[in-house]
Design a protein that fits this description.
heterodimer, A: 259 residues, mainly alpha, 8 helices, elongated, B: 269 residues, alpha/beta, Rossmann fold, 4-stranded antiparallel sheet
């Protein structure tokens, strides 16, 4: 019984310690953005890696999401004779929910796991220690540029996903459901309110933060050689995906409350 | 230059260094010998401030570094350089960028002056033709030599080596030892070399220190080590003599463990 209590105590302390370390890493990464050196070239490099590198997968995600929404939405709206309003359904669900979440999950798979594995490899090959030995702050050098790049590029990719999803929906609406293009685009934009666009940008910014910081934390806390690299990569992917879905729920709740 | 006083380090409650005291005077090459897991690399990490001890004092150039925040360690680390066991070259940077890394980061010199220092350092290790290569294109021995060039480029007063010859063929191991000796003779640098390679240790050491399970077992010259009669030292120095007898294995305390096979009568043939 005693050993069970001790083990529970250790486990809970472990969770608290993880949260504390994660918070410290986030604070140091943010603080790094306001101190010299700026590592502008590193930031631009990561913006290219995250933004341009993820363009193809978010385009595919957006296209098929829009197309599927149009097909499924048409089935649901047909009994009410409201198929021509399909673009309302597509634009609201994509901009408010599906665009940010699906884009973030795809980017977490590609970018988050990539960050974790790269930093984990650097950790197990002593490159992080070498950076410190060379007088460089590894958080400032490795985490801050990735964080800035994520905070800028994930919202940009989400906007692209949203646009492509509307276009995908249009293809089905126009060629399969024979909905007039003018009607489709007019209702697509009519359905959106200004704060939908604002909320639709806040969400991906938060998701970008989660993807980057979870990946960096997992990578920098790697131990146990090549096995540890694999574990960190998996951990980053799973944790960031769960956090994205959880924070999406809570943010939606807050946004609904705010109106 | 470096002084440890009663330094204790524990990992997960397991003592790695116990009340460890030692001194490295300026200009001396100290070799720290010992088996794997004996606390040798930990000592280098302590000197570099990558790790803080649980108790005790560490002085570098007369300045206490225990408890010093990371930012205050930067000027102290500027006087040191370390050659890591796996070389720890930055994968994404070329040899030129690796060797000149600290100089480029400091930004105090022009690109031309940095380039000159980088080439000079690479000339010292005989790899001036690898300037544009990436670390993945180099052999293990070349990586070690580039790591030494990187250490030299910033003109440190102290160089720390973690197993500089581990995993290298005899020719490359000899070459690395010679480079360490040249730095000792020509530039009078203070050097701390952690190794379990006796050839390297005998070749480069001004003084030897043997660590066993976190404690100092020996401190003296090469000749004194060769004549030491502690069984743990003898086992380390001449394992072929001690362990040649069938049934003899190294014991946890550094001595000899004799295992007598017992036949179980009921065991199947």
């Amino acid at each position: 019984m005693d050993s069970l209590v001790v083990r529970l105590d250790d486990t809970l302390k472990g969770y608290v310690l993880t949260v504390q370390e994660f918070a410290e890493l986030c604070a140091a990464a943010f603080a790094g953005a306001f101190r010299r050196p700026w590592y502008l070239r590193d930031t631009l490099y990561h913006m290219d890696q995250i933004g341009v590198g993820s363009l193809f997968i978010v385009i595919l995600t957006g296209t098929f999401t829009g197309m599927v929404l149009a097909l499924q939405g048409a089935i649901q709206l047909e009994p009410y004779g409201a198929v021509q309003y399909i673009s309302r359904l597509i634009s609201t669900s994509v901009v408010r929910e599906l665009g940010p979440v699906l884009a973030a999950l795809m980017i977490a798979g590609r970018v988050g796991s990539g960050i974790a594995s790269e930093l984990a490899s650097m950790q197990v090959t002593e490159q992080i220690d070498a950076l410190r030995a060379e007088g460089t702050d590894p958080i400032k050098k490795l985490v801050t540029p990735r964080l800035v790049a994520s905070l800028i590029m994930v919202p940009v990719l989400t906007v692209i996903t949203n646009g492509i999803a509307l276009l995908g929906g249009f293809l089905i609406a126009n060629f399969y459901l024979s909905i007039d293009p003018y009607f489709y685009w007019t209702w697509a934009f009519e359905a959106l309110r200004f704060h939908d666009l604002i909320y639709g940008l806040i969400k991906p910014t938060v998701f970008g933060f989660i993807i980057c910081m979870v990946g960096c934390y997992a990578g920098l806390n790697t131990a146990g050689g090549t096995v540890g690299v694999g574990e960190s990569t998996t951990q980053a992917m799973v944790t960031s995906s769960i956090l994205i879905l959880m924070t999406d729920f809570f943010m939606t709740k807050v946004f609904v409350f705010l109106g | 230059m470096i002084k440890f006083t009663d330094v204790c380090v524990k990992f997960d409650g397991r003592p790695v260094l116990k009340d460890f005291t030692m001194e490295v005077p300026t200009g001396e090459t100290l070799v720290i010998l010992g088996g794997s897991g004996g606390g040798k690399t930990t000592m280098l990490r302590l000197i570099l401030g990558l790790l803080h001890p649980d108790s005790g004092s560490i002085l570098v150039d007369g300045q206490e570094i225990v408890g010093l925040p990371e930012r205050d360690m930067v000027p102290i680390r500027a006087r040191m350089a370390m050659v890591f066991q796996g070389s720890a070259l930055f994968d994404s940077l070329s040899v030129r960028e690796n060797v000149g890394y600290r100089l480029y980061e400091e930004g105090a010199l022009s690109d031309y002056a940095i380039e000159r220092l980088v080439v000079l350092s690479l000339c010292f290790v005989g790899l001036e033709d690898t300037l544009e290569k990436m670390p993945a294109e180099l052999s293990g021995g070349m990586k070690k030599r580039v790591a030494i060039a990187r250490a030299l480029a910033c003109s440190p007063k102290l160089i720390l080596y973690d197993e500089p010859t581990a995993g290298l063929d005899p020719i490359n191991a000899h070459l690395i030892s010679e480079l360490i000796r040249r730095l000792q003779k020509e530039q009078h640098l203070t050097q701390v070399v952690v190794t379990h390679d006796l050839d390297t240790a005998y070749r480069v050491a001004d003084r030897l220190l043997m660590v066993h399970r976190g404690e100092k077992l020996f401190d003296g010259t090469v000749d004194m080590l060769k004549t030491a009669d502690d069984p743990r030292i003898r086992t380390f120095l001449s394992p072929q003599e001690v362990l040649a007898t069938p049934g003899c294995f190294p014991a946890k305390d550094g001595g000899i463990r004799v295992v007598t096979p017992t036949m179980d009568e009921e065991s199947p043939a």
